[in-house]
Each structure stands twice: as C-alpha cells, then as structure tokens.
Amino acid sequence: xxxxxxxxxxxxxxxxxxxxxxxxxxxxxxxxxxxxxxxxxxxxxxxxxxxxxxxxxxxxxxxxxxxxxxxxxxxxxxxxxxxxxxxxxxxxxxxxxxxxxxxxxxxxxxxxxxxxxxxxxxxxxxxxxxxxxxxxxxxxxxxxxxxxxxxxxxxxxxxxxxxxxxxxxxxxxxxxxx
Length: 178
Prior knowledge:
This protein has helices at residues 40-54, 72-80, 92-108, 122-135, 138-141, 153-161, 163-177, and strands spanning 2-7, 16-22, 28-33, 62-65, 84-87.
C-alpha cells in the first residue's frame, strides 16, 4: 500500500512537506512546497503526478490519501487514472515521517529542538513557533514565511513587549519536555 501525507501546511513558516510512503518496504519519498507558492493544491497535484510517473507506482497498489484538502485534486486525478484510492487517516508511521521531516526543516532555521508538537496540538505548537519567530532578528526570518499565511499578531506584541518572559517560556518548554 502507498500512503501520502503532508505536514506543515498550517504553519506560517517553512515549506509544506509531502511524503509518499510504501508501507511494505518502508520506502519514503519527500517533496516540498516552497514558501513562495500561493496555489499549493495545484502545486502539490503537479508534484505528485510527476512523482507517480517517476516512481512507476502501479495501478494495482492501493493508495491511501490523507484527508487534507491539499489532496482533493490529486484524488480526482488518481480516480480518473483508475487507481484504487482510499481517503482516510494515514498510519502513524507515515504521519511521523511527514512531521519529522517538517520539524527537521524548522530546526535547520534554528528553531529549538526541545519544542515539540505534543498530542497533535497544532494551535499550541504554532504559538510557540510564533513566539520564537518574533525573538529572531529580521534578517533570520525574512524569507521563512509562506506568502499565503501571515504570522499571528498577538505573539508579536507579547514577544516585543516581554522578550525576557518569552525566552523564559521557551526555556520552560524545554524543561517540561526534557
């Protein structure tokens, strides 16, 4: 079975990650949607169509697609091509691959490794990303934002008004998870 998932689409910084995972062999292929792409659904569809051709994915393999709207057009394409498509939550293994890849990209920007997504609480995680983002110099963050999303304003006010408090909150996050 082939599973396809995404990660990072709701975060205002970094690319969105797509993963194609063949469960039987553990093979995984990663693709990214750059931050400067506004029409991510069309872009993802184009990437995945090309990947399916390059990887020679057989129409005999069942394809499990994540339920995210980013895959709506690709699902229609697969059905037109007579692939067997299931639209449901992907396995934990595939979800972990996508999330880990996205996190490694955030870490490459300098985002602290000790701040983690816990229990799929994206709102809390993205708030921590926002607080970290606003503590960074502009030259570090200038090209990190997606053009289709904007950083939230409330963390900006807090980070700019109380930078020492925010640093302490981030450090406490480390001790709570470490």
